[in-house]
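Note to self: the last two entries modelled the partners one at a time, which told us nothing about the interface. This time every component goes in together.
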Amino acid sequence: MMESRVPETYTAPVENYLKVIYEIERASGAAATTDIAQRLDIAPASVSGMVRRLADQGLLEHERYRGVKLTEEGRRVALRTIRRHRVIESYLTRALGYPWDLVHDEAERLEHAASDELVDRMAAAIGEPTVDPHGAPIPTREGEIDEQSYIALTDLEPGEHGRVVRVSDDDAARLRYLGELGLRPGAAVVLVDRAPYGGPVTVRVGVAKKRVECHIGPTLAADVLVERAE
Amino acid sequence: MMESRVPETYTAPVENYLKVIYEIERASGAAATTDIAQRLDIAPASVSGMVRRLADQGLLEHERYRGVKLTEEGRRVALRTIRRHRVIESYLTRALGYPWDLVHDEAERLEHAASDELVDRMAAAIGEPTVDPHGAPIPTREGEIDEQSYIALTDLEPGEHGRVVRVSDDDAARLRYLGELGLRPGAAVVLVDRAPYGGPVTVRVGVAKKRVECHIGPTLAADVLVERAE
DNA sequence: AAATTAATTTAGGTAAGACGAAATATTCAC
DNA sequence: GTGAATATTTCGTCTTACCTAAATTAATTT
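The predicted structure of the combined assembly is written out below.
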């Protein structure tokens, strides 16, 4: 049961566990085995096993049947990985002209291979961005992150104005679709109508003459985060 | 003994085997087990095992006790990996200001994670370079490579002029040293003297007033490739 | 033909992670 | 509070993908 020494380099699966645990913990206070399993598309039994190993390495604390919480070190590693991912995504779009629906998969692989040196140089080269192309905040080199809670598009009242601040980044096809509609971070929106019973929401996107009206399903709309405007 | 299907993605060790087999084969016609083992710092027995697996996958042909040769497919994979490595090295120096002694290690990791798409975008962004920062030729997207045989610095006759075309890239400290001396690809040199019995060579590096004279060991000098000039 | 060198086979080990099934704990509904 | 449903863990195994030492066999040298 002895604690192993801390390596400064972790395997890709370990980094991925820590990433999703960080996200779940932030959203719900503690990460349950099943949630982790579902997000990683892995059997719950496998998660139990890995969780034990991560706990042995001092990356998280585990209360049986109560979920896990990252330790200081675990949080550090998670945020470093998230920073890598988001800096890489930003760099690919801004410096290499990648379309925003492709950067996620590429970053998903590179984040485990890129050195801190490289990530820092990338960040510097594009002016130390604070959010990635999907509006997600980028942790600093020191591991600070500006996590804000935004409301979903579906939370706007009919007639209310808003501005898109963030969209979820993990599905390329959905992203492409959102892009076609103009629903990217920064876009001005007006919620026109919400159909009841799980119906679509009607939104006007864009400013002035170039406004476009569209109808999108509630699931998709819930993944578009906005802030209220004027 | 059935041939497995060909995956389009290979593990890092496999790509590394193919890379060094390509290099050895180019230099000596066929790659012997011991040579591969030595270059990869691995026991010969392990090489025998891996060679069998690679042969089963159709990446190389193996005549027992006679060494291996890459198949068309093996060569394709090797050259793709080499292209990745060298494009990444070039990109890191030219676009991100990496010092030339650090790019090798970074590229060594990234080459196994970067997609063709990314590598092609990097190449395009810096104007489709044909050689990497150490003067090594970069294979094209189609797998063609312009392999030229150059002479070593030690092969110049005293008094002869030359131009550095390539240096070996795998040792950061040596590269830093060569850099300090100005011995980078493109540098003009004059061989002043070769001391006998494994002694140092004396070289004048640079042009006109800025010439510097230096003495370097024969091992190092043998890794500096040049072409004769004027 | 013996000695040397090179390569291969054998048998086994490791690391890292995954899984299904069974057992156990917790929570929920009433 | 009890039983059902759900969540979690443990157990015993498996896989992949590599690596190794020691012993054996083949090729080469002289």
